[in-house]
Amino acid sequence: xxxxxxxxxxxxxxxxxxxSNLIKGTVITLADGTEVSIEEVREDDTLLTxxxxxxxxxxxxxxxxERSNQSELKKIVLADxxxxxxxxxxxxxxxxxxxxxxxxETSKLAKYxxxxxLGYHVDAFIYTIGVDFNISVLxxxxxxxxxxxxxxYGLVLDNENAAFIANGxxxxx
Length: 173
What we know:
Layout: H1 2-15, E1 22-23, E2 27-29, E3 35-37, E4 46-51, E5 56-70, E6 73-78, E7 83-87, E8 92-94, E9 97-100, H2 103-108, E10 118-119, E11 125-129, E12 135-146, E13 150-157, E14 162-166, E15 169-171
Parallel strand pairs: 9-10
Antiparallel strand pairs: 1-13, 2-3, 4-5, 4-14, 5-13, 6-7, 6-12, 8-9, 11-12, 14-15
């Protein structure tokens, strides 16, 4: 019985791997509207999220947090000047669905196997949320390669359809 339970735990842990890798210092919006850096987010914290299947704002709970070091990163700048630095498999919610820099690798991850992940480019439109909590769709105006190794974090939420808010961008888990 213990072997079966251990196997089940290993399988469930493997399924919860996140594609989300955001650099240390990325600002995450909690359910109450306060903002904290991603390294301060804890399991069981609640985040303000967008359910991308129902296009509705809701609260989702963090069930897992991962830390790693990444050396291939992208810096995305939107038309309003907001920026986000992330791994090449990090997804963002766009007017066309999920987008990532390395769409092939991202599509291999279990979470995105059933969804078509597109590549992003300058002029792609990304969902954002402002300080007034109004949702906007803004174009990417710049994409920059970042080749230095950085500490990154990923979050897994209790709602697989939820996109959480990182530096005002709606991003995947």
